[in-house]
Amino acid sequence: MKIISNWQGLAGKCVLAIGVAAVASAAVASTASYPTAGCSWYDSVVPPAHWIVPAPDVASLAPAVYRPSAGAFIHVGNANSAANSGIAGTWKVVFVSDGVPPNPVPAGVTTDFGTVQWHDDGTELMISGGRPPSTGNVCMGAWEQIGPFTYKLKHIALAWISSDTPPSMGGPGPSPAQFLGPAVIEQVVNLDKSRARYQGTFTIDQFNADETAVLVHVSGTVSGMRLTVD
Q1: Lowest mean pLDDT among 24-33, 125-134, 149-158
Q2: 29, 98, 195, 224: which has the fewest Cβ within 10 Å?
Q3: How does strand 110-118 pair with strand 123-128?
């Protein structure tokens, strides 16, 4: 599938479908100087007290669902006694660019952040904190376990441009809002043994409205921290 290096018309105004506001900031600030007041920003060294490691392993049954594609039962949920369980739950996530061409976002720039739910039926839901709701900040996907503590995810974000789209994201746009196209986000993540965090890689391919061409490709690393009731 062809990648377009120069956007034309409406697509040319939208620099990036996911977290593009960070690109403008990169020219005047280093990663260390980015504000930390965002609702999904966290200190990876000293996390807030309510982000805690689950209780030590105890003997228990491990919930599972049958996946026809895998031809087997797949462990799900947060049963710590299962060697390959734990991704289901609510997570705080941060996406950071790796700057590898053709990715236009400089390395180290936070491209998006938000909250994610991995459901034990193999579905997933994300709400982006880096995108205005008017541009499409909710995406849904599907995941499967591909190894002990390793999970593969694919989800789709539907990008729009409207009159209240900020200039850093290609706005202002038309009124009524116009559909830019779907963004396909893929991840492979590894859950740590505490089941409290995961790390992995991501790619984002922003397509035009009829999905005939990729407008921009972004890649980098993703990290997640589990939300608990405590």
Answers
A1: 24-33
A2: 29
A3: antiparallel
pLDDT band at 177 (very low <50, low <70, confident <90, very high): confident
Structure tokens that stand for 44 in this block: 């990876």
| Strand, coil or helix: 38 | coil
Q: What b/e sequence results for 206-224 when a residue is b if at least 16 CB atoms lie within 10 Å of its CB, and e otherwise?
A: bbbeeeeebbbebbbebbb
Q: CA of 202: how far to CAs of 69, 102, 152, 163, 222, in Å?
A: 23, 14, 10, 30, 6
pTM over 0.70: no
Show the 3-state SS of 186-206.
EEEEEECCCCCEEEEEEEEEE
Closest by Cα among 128, 152, 153, 151 to 139: 128
Higher pLDDT, 47 or 146: 146
Segments making up each domain of the chain, as ranges: 9-47+62-226
Whole-number Å distance between alpha carbons of 131 and 169 = 9
The continuous run of DSSP H or E covering 24 comes out as: helix 21-26
pLDDT digits (tens, 9 = 90+) for 183-197: 999 999 999 988 999
- pLDDT tens per residue across span 127-152: 999 888 878 899 999 999 999 899 99
